[in-house]
Amino acid sequence: MVASTFRADTTAGIVTVLNGVIAAHPTLLLRAYPSRPANVTVDLPAAFVENRPETVSHDSQTRTRLMTPSVIVVREYTDNAEAMAAFDILVDFLVDAFTAAPQFSTGTIWDTFTVADEEYVIGDYLYPAVRFTFSDVTSMDGRT
Fold first, then answer.
1. CB 3.0 to 4.6 Å from 129: which of 37, 79, 120, 143, for a disulfide?
2. Which long-range contacts (CB under 8 A, 24 or more apart) does 57-62 make?
């Protein structure tokens, strides 16, 4: 049996979408990472793939893997209304970019995600952030 690369491929696909946003709008999103970087406070706003919980189910012929990955987008803390407006524009661009990518890798599909404002703890500080959670990234393969 060949090992599945579903987790790695899904993460890479998400980062590809993020890098596409960086290429199109390099001043709105500065960095994208496949996992939380050691120093996330450098070059903000930045995005990274965080949690990737997964449910695996089987029947007699198939294995279905359902992943619920999250992408965190962190921005600098500021009271500046202009900076907040730019962050809102970035979130809208990300919504459009993710919508245009219904498959993060070959053999996967997803159809629902949520966007939630939150604060992200880094050291002793809370940074404004947005969490994108994909509720149903799915891969099915044959079972022998």
1. 120
2. 58/143, 59/143, 60/143, 61/142, 61/143, 62/140, 62/141, 62/142, 62/143
